[in-house]
Amino acid sequence: MSAAEKVRPASAAELRREIRRQLPLLDPELRIVAEDFMGLASPIDLLAISSRGEVVLILLSLEGENDAALLTRCLAQRAWAAPRLRDWAQLAPELEIAADAPIRVILLAPDFGSETLAAAASLRPGVVQLVRHVSLRVGGQPGLLFEPIGDEVHAASPRPPETREPLRGKLPGALPSFRSGLSDNDLSLKPAPEESFDD
Amino acid sequence: MPRDLSDVLHYFGPELAEPKGSTEVFAESRPEASELPATLSIVSVPIGERDVVRAAFTWNLAVEIARLGGRAIVLSPDEATPSPLWPVAGPGPLGVELRPSLAKDLDSLQEAALEAATTQVSGNTEGGVVFVRIPPAWLETSALAPALMDWTLLFTSSATSDLREALKLARAVMSKKAGARVGVTIHGVHCRSEAETAFERIARATRSKPGSDVTSYGLLVDDLQVYRAIVAQRPIGLAHPQSPAARALRDVAQLLLDDERKEAP
Q1: pLDDT in tens, B244-264
Q2: How many CA atoms lie within 13 A of B109 on its CB side?
Q3: Under CATH, what is the fold of the domain A4-163?
């Protein structure tokens, strides 16, 4: 039996390659459609589309990089991408992007500090998923372990509104979807604290 | 046809944003003239006699549709001349026309709307919308006016009382025409999730009757610019194009135009 050895990825490119290869382990519904492209002032590592057409931004950091800065960057990139979804959907219809679905972000880092965990927990559930990654070499072959920590961050949180119903309103019996290409950032709005609107 | 999103992402890079904005990209991807509608679509909007806020939303949406390349008319049966709801009648900014009507009921208003939708089409290759103000009380009459009931847009805040009022109007329209498209725009929200939740509430409530789904037309922000625009009678999209209110109006206008073009013969 081969021993597993923890290693440090040589570069972000190598890590991206491994993530692409092992993406089904992270989320089998995702497919990568773009890699290392310029977003708002910095590159977005990977852009994926879920089977429901949601756009998912994947940002990663290596050992020693600032995970809190990664969280800030991911929110900025999400705000940058939101108003562009409709154009992307028109320009690349074969990707079947659900332009009215909120953008998800997955952050991959070797570890997350308590400040990052607390900040992520204060966001609406479903917006940011934190995942620890561990690079391994098993029998000479590279490997990657994912450890999603979203559940512990949002352990007691209700499901976000955008995941209560099918996102594209195409499933039989589903309520029609809310449509807007705008985020709170676009409108300079500050989300109110979570509260019930039920009758 | 781009095969991969990375083929088109350069359009959106910050370094290219100024010389080649998303509007231009969208313009390039517009359908050919032959694919565009032969007449304008009629969108009915229930607006009371003194409802200046909904009237302002409607007029500003018309201007946004014009900014997006469509044609827009606002048709309104008004008791008083000039109406306190609208700016001066006639052609206005970007060719948006405010057309008062002498119609006294749904049937005569329908006639005026159909005339506006067809006469305006002369020389028009971009499609567009005739917004028709319907006094809410007219929806309670027995007149059917099917052309006015095809597509309705309701503005409601997220307050329960407003949602109930919108629900009542939605049901009135749906009772006049099976399969009517009833759009809902949530205004006055403090965050997107508030609009999502409000829309979900009204969608769930209308669902209580089979075959009666509402359609989301986004959200509007009641920021200061809306009220300034009402007072100044200047469209927000032209006076304050970067304001949150203008962005939200543009998003709703885009949804309307997208659907209008999707339905085009």
Answers
A1: 888 899 999 999 998 888 765
A2: 29
A3: Trna Endonuclease; Chain: A, domain 1 (3.40.1350)
